[in-house]
């Protein structure tokens, strides 16, 4: 990965901008990372409303923040205020991490690469040749599908409630691999040969924890089933997949690894992933 300038300041100022922001587990996670690395600094939650985003981005420079994470609803809008946008983030169309190099702001997207690192570490070490089914075709799906295309999978089938969005996304990135778009009514066709199913929709997220994005009987036995949702840690989709002897992978690893990549961009040092994961788990208790 590309490593930016090493720490120049004694005190590392970091934060996350979103609306709302109170629920974010990023401050606990990154504060734990700073402590584990023995770095002095702070990672603060910044409640920025859409009308304040432009000023808030300028403030990164004025206040000397080394970087910030960007979360809902600013990931797309923020792009127009940055000096440079990394190629991956440009393609995905969203930025979740900003690095400030002496007043020059660069935007990255670490969601997809964080997800893929987690999937490979925890559930499936080699994605080459695998037939992957992605449920959903929104912003989260874009980041993940983009990162997956870098792993030479056999195919990526996108299944979405609004089939036109799945078909359009498959067409947009047809040069990156064998991508196909399907509507929900064609899920059975897409799932027949699946090695890995990845849910990127919000179906099953707290408080709607009994909902499931695909009929359990369509899940092939013994495959890998992954869910981006980390609240709850084990969604109904993963519960049903376990009953079908699948290897299951929850969203906590993605959250931690997108943060780890951001931390690495800011500091130029390997992130203390275990300490970060423990901090997030503690914040659930
Ligand atoms: P995100 O950035 O989290 O991906 P998004 O861009 O709004 O959010 O995309 C949400 C995705 O979840 C979409 O694929 C959406 O399907 P539509 O394109 O048909 O809207 C999907 N989604 C959300 N709620 C859903 C539901 N109840 N059933 C099925 N799909 C749902």
TrEMBL record:
<comment type="pathway">
    <text>Metabolic intermediate biosynthesis; chorismate biosynthesis; chorismate from D-erythrose 4-phosphate and phosphoenolpyruvate: step 4/7.</text>
</comment>
<dbReference type="GO" id="GO:0009073">
    <property type="term" value="P:aromatic amino acid family biosynthetic process"/>
</dbReference>
<feature type="binding site">
    <location>
        <position position="258"/>
    </location>
    <ligand>
        <name>shikimate</name>
    </ligand>
</feature>
<feature type="binding site">
    <location>
        <position position="228"/>
    </location>
    <ligand>
        <name>NADP(+)</name>
    </ligand>
</feature>
<feature type="binding site">
    <location>
        <begin position="24"/>
        <end position="26"/>
    </location>
    <ligand>
        <name>shikimate</name>
    </ligand>
</feature>
<feature type="binding site">
    <location>
        <begin position="136"/>
        <end position="140"/>
    </location>
    <ligand>
        <name>NADP(+)</name>
    </ligand>
</feature>
<feature type="binding site">
    <location>
        <position position="71"/>
    </location>
    <ligand>
        <name>shikimate</name>
    </ligand>
</feature>
<feature type="binding site">
    <location>
        <position position="87"/>
    </location>
    <ligand>
        <name>NADP(+)</name>
    </ligand>
</feature>
<feature type="binding site">
    <location>
        <position position="251"/>
    </location>
    <ligand>
        <name>NADP(+)</name>
    </ligand>
</feature>
<feature type="binding site">
    <location>
        <position position="111"/>
    </location>
    <ligand>
        <name>shikimate</name>
    </ligand>
</feature>
<comment type="similarity">
    <text>Belongs to the shikimate dehydrogenase family.</text>
</comment>
<comment type="function">
    <text>Involved in the biosynthesis of the chorismate, which leads to the biosynthesis of aromatic amino acids. Catalyzes the reversible NADPH linked reduction of 3-dehydroshikimate (DHSA) to yield shikimate (SA).</text>
</comment>
<dbReference type="Pfam" id="PF08501">
    <property type="entry name" value="Shikimate_dh_N"/>
</dbReference>
<feature type="domain" description="Quinate/shikimate 5-dehydrogenase/glutamyl-tRNA reductase">
    <location>
        <begin position="120"/>
        <end position="202"/>
    </location>
</feature>
<protein>
    <recommendedName>
        <fullName>Shikimate dehydrogenase (NADP(+))</fullName>
        <ecNumber>1.1.1.25</ecNumber>
    </recommendedName>
</protein>
<feature type="domain" description="Shikimate dehydrogenase substrate binding N-terminal">
    <location>
        <begin position="16"/>
        <end position="98"/>
    </location>
</feature>
<dbReference type="InterPro" id="IPR013708">
    <property type="entry name" value="Shikimate_DH-bd_N"/>
</dbReference>
<dbReference type="GO" id="GO:0019632">
    <property type="term" value="P:shikimate metabolic process"/>
</dbReference>
<dbReference type="GO" id="GO:0050661">
    <property type="term" value="F:NADP binding"/>
</dbReference>
<keyword id="KW-0521">NADP</keyword>
<keyword id="KW-0057">Aromatic amino acid biosynthesis</keyword>
<keyword id="KW-0028">Amino-acid biosynthesis</keyword>
<dbReference type="GO" id="GO:0004764">
    <property type="term" value="F:shikimate 3-dehydrogenase (NADP+) activity"/>
</dbReference>
<keyword id="KW-0560">Oxidoreductase</keyword>
<dbReference type="InterPro" id="IPR046346">
    <property type="entry name" value="Aminoacid_DH-like_N_sf"/>
</dbReference>
<dbReference type="InterPro" id="IPR036291">
    <property type="entry name" value="NAD(P)-bd_dom_sf"/>
</dbReference>
<dbReference type="GO" id="GO:0008652">
    <property type="term" value="P:amino acid biosynthetic process"/>
</dbReference>
<dbReference type="GO" id="GO:0009423">
    <property type="term" value="P:chorismate biosynthetic process"/>
</dbReference>
<comment type="subunit">
    <text>Homodimer.</text>
</comment>
<dbReference type="InterPro" id="IPR022893">
    <property type="entry name" value="Shikimate_DH_fam"/>
</dbReference>
<feature type="active site" description="Proton acceptor">
    <location>
        <position position="75"/>
    </location>
</feature>
<dbReference type="InterPro" id="IPR041121">
    <property type="entry name" value="SDH_C"/>
</dbReference>
<feature type="binding site">
    <location>
        <begin position="160"/>
        <end position="165"/>
    </location>
    <ligand>
        <name>NADP(+)</name>
    </ligand>
</feature>
<feature type="binding site">
    <location>
        <position position="230"/>
    </location>
    <ligand>
        <name>shikimate</name>
    </ligand>
</feature>
<feature type="domain" description="SDH C-terminal">
    <location>
        <begin position="251"/>
        <end position="281"/>
    </location>
</feature>
<dbReference type="InterPro" id="IPR006151">
    <property type="entry name" value="Shikm_DH/Glu-tRNA_Rdtase"/>
</dbReference>
<feature type="binding site">
    <location>
        <position position="96"/>
    </location>
    <ligand>
        <name>shikimate</name>
    </ligand>
</feature>
<dbReference type="Pfam" id="PF18317">
    <property type="entry name" value="SDH_C"/>
</dbReference>
<dbReference type="InterPro" id="IPR011342">
    <property type="entry name" value="Shikimate_DH"/>
</dbReference>
<dbReference type="Pfam" id="PF01488">
    <property type="entry name" value="Shikimate_DH"/>
</dbReference>
